[in-house]
Amino acid sequence: MFSGIVESVAKVVNIKEELGNKHITLACDFTNELKIDQSIAHNGVCLTVVELNDDKYTVTAIKETLDKSNLGMLKDGDIVNLERSMRPDALLDGHIVQGHVDQTAICTNVADEEGSWRFTFEFEPQGDNITVEKGSVTINGVSLTVVNSTQNSFQVAIIPYTFEHTNFCKIEKNSVVNIEFDIIGKYIAKLMKNYHK
Fold first, then answer.
1. What's the total number of domains in the chain?
2. Which residues are CB-contacts of 149 (< 8 A; sequence separation ≥ 6)?
3. Which of 72, 83, 148, 185 would you label with 195, given CA atoms 20 to 30 Å apart?
4. Interval 117-160: pLDDT, tens
5. pLDDT 10s digits, 35-45
6. Which CATH number characterizes residue 130's domain?
């Protein structure tokens, strides 16, 4: 379980392909605090630490993860948003995030609003994936508030701190991002669909 509050960023230092999997090695400022089997959200995707080596660690992304997220597009030098699992005694500063990315979306516009940025994203509607006005959404692991919600698009406003301390500073028009839709919204959408059958 995560909150969508990015703790740090990591730099991809190596990617090794093995059958349908990718072993991704990263370096971050808290590698020395990690343990094997620990869960960490990478751009919103919950992955398990499988190897530690000095200031670097490795996680494995399987085919399902690579198909549903932007992790398959990573290359050496890319920056990834990180969040360690939420502790039971921690404040829930964002919203309930599972670390289970639903699908990807494409950035269609970045507007500089003189002190903040407004990002527009479009996605292919699938299943019960919806956004609602002023609801929550997770983009690359960042908990954000939805504005201008439509059936297949939405916008988010990004403050300077988030822009500078996450990989939002690298997102531009046509960038592919990971989306985890709000779990409560997905449950309600499914219940309503089943109710009207």
1. 2
2. 131, 132, 133, 135
3. 148
4. 999 999 998 888 889 899 999 999 999 999 999 999 999 999 99
5. 999 999 999 99
6. 2.40.30.20
Q: Which residue has the tokens 């690298």?
A: 170
- What is the spatial distance between Cα 194 and Cα 176, in angstroms, rounded to a whole number? 32
Q: In what order do the strands lie in the sheet with 176-181?
A: 142-145, 136-139, 176-181, 103-112, 117-122, 153-158
Q: Answer yes or no: is 171 within a domain.
A: yes
Judged against a pLDDT cut of 80, whether residue 93 lies above it is answered with: no
Tell me the pLDDT band of 183, cut-offs 50, 70 and 90.
confident
Please give the backbone phi and psi of residue 43, each rounded to the nearest 5 degrees, phi first. 50, 35
CB atoms within 10 A of CB 185: 18
CA distance 126 to 1: 23
Whether 110 is in a domain gets the answer yes
Question: Which band of pLDDT confidence, cut at 50, 70 and 90, is reported for residue 13?
Answer: very high
- Other CB atoms closer than 10 Å to residue 90's CB: what's the count? 11
79 and 130 share one domain? no
Of 169, 160, 143, 144, nearest to 9 by C-alpha is 169
Cα first-last separation, the chain: 32
- Separation CA 138–CA 44 (nearest Å): 7
